[in-house]
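CHAIN AND CONFORMATION:

***
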Amino acid sequence: MAIRAKQLMLNEANRLLIEDQRGYPMNREIGVLFDIDGLGGPSSYGTPCWRILMKNLDLSEMPGVVFYQGDLDIQASQRPYCYCIAITELMAFTDGRGYEHFLEKLSVASDPGLFPQGRRFIKDGVTTSLIGTGRVDIEGRFRMSSQLGDLGDLRLVTNGNEFGWKVLPDDDLVAAFTLTYLERTSGEGLPLSADSRLACESVLKEVGQSITFSALRSLGLPSNRLKKACRQLNLQIWPDSRVMTYVSVDRVF
């Protein structure tokens, strides 16, 4: 319970802008800029940017940090066009540990696509024009935001696996993630690619059976639909589970 309470507190705290008695902002934010043209143009650039971050950042140094992303027009529609990944961090909980790690590691990074060092970072209000992407929980896992859609961004999952980032849906996304996976693997929606299916299944295995079932139950689904979903998940994700059939929905958990 203590760990869970601290996770919720960090998540909520990072959404707030608080000022201390001296009038200085306690919620620090900073964004790193990428040259879209330098990453091959507008056809595909978001994933290469995240790969650069994954290569350079250690999430165990960034608990409580919230990430944002999006295009940023910093020169009135003149090139270079920018893509920005930014963070916020509540100083009262972390003493700026994640902020300093972000700044230190990306200041010295030399990956193609990063802005030159003198123009690489942007501060003060940058996140207002970006999309919330996820947060780092106290265990150093990247928890995808529901703003990314029902499956989050599976590219973050697959690339995270390569670079040692554990990427999972945030607590409020687990149920939608699970139902979408079930729909798209049972012929009810657009089928998942083989790679996307593997990514989804690796995520659900990491989340765990108990948490996944609890998330589904919290939706208040009809009992027959809940039973069907749990059975399908056991068959596809946890085939070795002993809990294969249910007499009562109340006994599922």
Summary: The CA atoms of residues 70 and 130 lie 5 Å apart. Confidence is low (pLDDT under 50) at residues 12-24, 244-250.
